[in-house]
Every structure is written in structure tokens, then in C-alpha cells.
Design brief:
Helix content is about 70%, strand content about 0%. It has about 425 residues and is mainly alpha-helical. It starts with a helix and ends in a 6-residue tail after the last helix.
């Protein structure tokens, strides 16, 4: 094997297990870049089928691993058990809900039945057992950040209607290859904070590449015109800046290039967005009390009424439609006929109450709270040991978690 081949192989490897595991982890990471017309919103069954195939391959890679017996640490990780508890509650709720068949198989448009959540659980467990080195996790996070950058570039090219760029939605709101502007915006919330970390921790030319990727993602997020994710980004971004200032004080005093680069980035970002404004449908960002707000308000009122009827374990996964139909409130038809068909509350708390009841919501909040507390503890410990890189990674993940939770208060995933 030549030196070049060895470098390619070292770059490709994401675990110390086997080729099958590495291949399917790569496929999962690159899923947002799949260019195939039959897997986009509003019908997600094609993407769901591909994802299930990838998870099966990942589990196969796990079974083929020779080193699986060496890694039992994940059994002692509370996060794994809290996630498993939430899944158990969801499985019970789905099985005794108003329509178990719909709960388990989902719908063609959503494809988020319980089989999908079991697959997510299997994927997470497989990754915990296959990826055991910090360097491998950093490589995975880096790939995710570049996927975000490529998606951001593709979204901008969609808006500019560049020949050869496939446009999925007829709306002026960009969605890259995800097919839905809100879902795309939520994906960018993950990748933006990862990119921020790699921009902060990198040196040399690669740092400027990360900065360019960050700018592309920020522009794309604005062009989605999704108010919930944008507000979440602003709040979590301010939180990230506070941590960045505290962790990077010594570097900020010595390295003025950070200030120059940051200032230039802000100017460039503002300029690009200004020139793209005429092409984008961004007026909805500045109108609060519109039809969308009215729809959300009526939906939330209906959801709260429905929750009182099945408070313990809810209606079961994908059964919110029955709740909204049974407790339907007049007013939605005045906005649009499509608004009368509701299957989500567009609010994380209400959605959990509807499908998994108070038990499911409490477990989900415990999970989020434990993740936040663990990351906060990790940041404090890293600062105490003068490990700024570890502290910044933990802080970036904490800001990401905050952004995702805030966005889910007005959307769903």
C-alpha cells in the first residue's frame, strides 16, 4: 500500500473496528447530501428506508467487531439508561394508544413510527460501542460540520437558481437536500456549533475554511426564514460567546487576528445577506402576529385540551392527529384547509404530553437536564485543569443542546 493510499485509509477510518462499521457510519453522516428525488419531504419513506438499511449495516459492523467485548463502559453511562427508559415508555404508550398500528409503522409522510425510534436507539448504542477514541469522535463531528457547510452552499445556490442545482420546494425558503426549511434549519443548529468549535480550535489555512463553512451555514439558516431556529441560534449563540470569552481570554489578548477575522466575517455575512434579501422570502421573519402564529396558538390550545383526556401515557406515537380531530376547534379553516389537518403541536413539551403523556415528558426533560448538567460539569472540570480545548468542545455542545431545545419549542423533529 502506497503512502497516499495509507493516508486515504487513515482518513476514511472512523473506528478501530472494521471496514463495514466505518462504511455505514460514513453513509449515515452523509445522508443529508443524498440527491434523489423520491426521498424528500413531504414523503419521507424513501429516506426512512435508506436509513434503516444503514442502521442494519451498522449493527452488522458491530457484530463483526473483534473488540466489542473490551468496551463495557457505556453500560455505566446514565445517558444510555435514561434514553432506554424514554424508549420503553414510548413503546408502552404506542402499544396501548389509540392506534398501535399507526404508532409502530408511522405514516408515509412522516415515517417516524416506533420502528424508526428503535433504529435510532440501535444506531446510538452501536456508535457508543464502536467509536471509543476521542480522535474518532472529533473526526465524526468534523464531518458533520462539513456536511453543514456543503448543505449551506447548496441552499444558497438553490436560491440563486443556478442551472443544474435541483430545487426541491417551490417556496422561496431554502431547504437544501432536506426538503423542508424547518428541518434544514434544525440540522444547521447542530452543524453551526460544531463548526464554531473547529474554527476556534484549528490553526493555519483550515481555520479559514471552517470560517467560510460557518458563514455559508449562517446565511442558509437565515434564508430558511424559520423564526424558531433563528431565535434559538441567537440566544444559544450569545451563550456560546460568553463561554468563548471566558475560556479564550488569554488567546484574545495575544491574537488580534481573531478580532480581525471575526469582524471581517460579520461584515461579509451582513453584506451577503443584504444582497440575497430581494431573492429570499424573509418578510415573515419580521411579522409576528400572522397566520402561522394564529395556527400555532389554536393548535396549542387544542393540544392542552386533548392532553387532559389521556394525561398519563398520552395517545401514542403518531396519534396526535386523533387528539386534534376529537378536540377540533373552529378557526383553522379560516386560514387554510391544510391547516385543519394537524398531526403535531409544534412544541416539544406539548408533543411529548400528547404522544407519551406526563411520564414520557418527565423522562425526556430528565434526559435533557442530565445532558446539560454533564456538559456543564465537564466544562468546569476542563477549565480547572487548564484544558481549554476540552472546555470549548463541552461548551459548544451545551450551546447546541440549548439551541435545539429552544427551536423545538416552536417546531418539531
Amino acid at each position: 500500500m502506497t503512502n497516499r493510499m495509507k493516508k486515504v485509509w487513515a482518513w476514511f477510518k472512523l473506528t478501530d473496528s472494521n471496514l463495514v462499521a466505518d462504511l455505514f457510519i460514513w453513509l449515515v453522516l452523509l445522508t443529508p447530501l443524498i440527491l434523489y428525488i423520491y426521498i424528500y419531504q413531504p414523503f419521507s419513506f424513501g429516506r426512512y428506508f435508506i436509513f434503516m438499511f444503514m442502521v442494519a449495516g451498522l449493527v452488522l459492523g458491530l457484530l463483526l467487531s473483534q473488540s466489542i467485548k473490551l468496551y463495557y463502559r457505556w453500560w455505566r453511562e446514565p445517558t444510555f439508561w435514561v434514553v432506554s427508559l424514554w424508549l420503553l415508555v414510548a413503546l408502552i404508550s404506542a402499544s396501548i394508544g389509540v392506534n398501535p398500528f399507526r404508532s409502530w409503522w408511522g405514516t408515509i409522510s412522516r415515517s417516524t413510527g416506533m420502528f424508526f425510534f428503535v433504529a435510532i436507539w440501535l444506531m446510538g448504542g452501536s456508535l457508543l460501542m464502536l467509536v471509543n477514541r476521542k480522535a474518532d469522535w472529533l473526526k465524526i463531528f468534523s464531518v458533520m460540520s462539513w456536511v453543514g457547510g456543503i448543505s449551506g452552499l447548496y441552499a444558497i445556490l438553490q436560491l440563486l437558481k443556478i442551472p443544474g442545482i435541483y430545487i426541491i420546494s417551490s417556496s422561496e425558503r431554502v431547504s437544501a437536500l432536506i426538503g423542508n426549511p424547518i428541518f434544514f434549519a434544525q440540522l444547521l443548529l447542530f452543524t453551526i456549533f460544531l463548526t464554531l468549535y473547529f474554527w476556534w480550535s484549528s490553526i493555519g489555512k483550515i481555520r479559514w475554511y471552517y470560517l467560510a463553512s460557518l458563514l455559508l451555514q449562517l446565511i442558509a439558516l437565515v434564508l430558511t426564514a424559520s423564526r424558531g431556529p433563528l431565535l434559538a441560534l441567537v440566544i444559544a449563540g450569545l451563550v456560546w460567546l460568553v463561554g468563548w470569552w471566558q475560556i479564550s481570554k488569554s488567546r484574545l489578548k495575544l491574537d488580534g487576528r481573531i478580532w480581525v477575522g471575526g469582524g471581517a466575517g460579520v461584515v461579509l455575512l451582513t453584506t451577503i445577506i443584504y444582497f440575497l434579501l430581494p431573492k429570499a422570502s424573509l418578510t415573515r421573519l419580521f411579522v409576528i402576529f400572522n397566520d402561522s402564529f394564529t395556527t400555532r396558538f389554536i393548535t396549542w390550545q387544542t393540544a392542552w385540551l386533548a392532553i387532559q383526556d389521556r394525561p398519563i401515557l398520552g395517545y401514542g406515537n403518531e396519534n396526535a392527529w386523533y387528539a386534534f380531530t376529537h378536540f377540533y376547534r373552529p378557526g383553522l379553516a379560516n386560514i387554510s384547509f391544510s391547516e385543519t389537518i394537524v398531526d403535531r403541536a409544534h412544541n416539544f413539551v406539548l408533543d411529548q404530553l400528547l404522544v407519551n403523556g406526563w411520564i414520557g415528558l418527565v423522562v425526556a426533560l430528565v434526559l435533557l437536564g442530565y445532558l446539560g448538567w454533564s456538559l456543564w460539569k465537564h466544562v468546569k472540570k476542563s477549565i480547572h485543569h487548564n484544558n481549554s480545548a476540552e472546555a470549548m468542545m463541552g461548551w459548544s455542545l451545551l450551546a447546541m443542546l440549548l439551541a435545539y431545545f429552544l427551536a423545538d419549542l416552536t417546531t418539531f423533529d
